[in-house]
Design a protein that fits this description.
- This protein is 0% helix and 57% strand.
- It is built from no helices and eleven strands.
- It is globular, with a radius of gyration of 14 Å.
């Protein structure tokens, strides 16, 4: 099982980006999916999570600006990021609890988001 994240890049403050993360492999089902981020010198932190039923949860710092969603048919989770701020600059990682040969937690490889003018 692999998680492949994409969509990062350089954006100006106030701009938008959409991250995607697709799970592949011999997957039976996916439970919760989430996005984390880690800025230089900081610990990895939870940005947003979503259950298999679509219930979502957000860090206070991104509420009202970021939206997490998922396409269960495509085994993909998305993070729509609007009104980006320089403090959103970080490597963003996707995470998922997946049932394949066993129930395990998986991490994607990370995608860099840089918010700068």
């Amino acid at each position: 099982v692999q998680l492949q994240a994409s969509g990062g890049g350089l954006v100006q403050p106030g701009g938008s980006l959409r991250l995607s993360c697709a799970a592949s492999g011999n997957i039976l089902s996916i439970n919760s999916m989430a996005w984390y981020r880690q800025a230089p010198g900081n610990q990895r932190e939870l940005v947003a999570s979503i259950t298999s039923g679509g219930s979502s949860n957000y860090a206070d710092s991104v509420k009202g600006r970021f939206t997490i969603s998922r396409d269960n048919a495509k085994n993909t989770v998305y993070l729509q990021m609007n009104s980006l701020k320089p403090e959103d600059t970080a490597v963003y990682y996707c995470n998922a609890y997946i049932i394949a040969t066993m129930y395990m937690n998986y991490w994607g490889q990370g995608t860099l988001v840089t918010v700068s003018s």
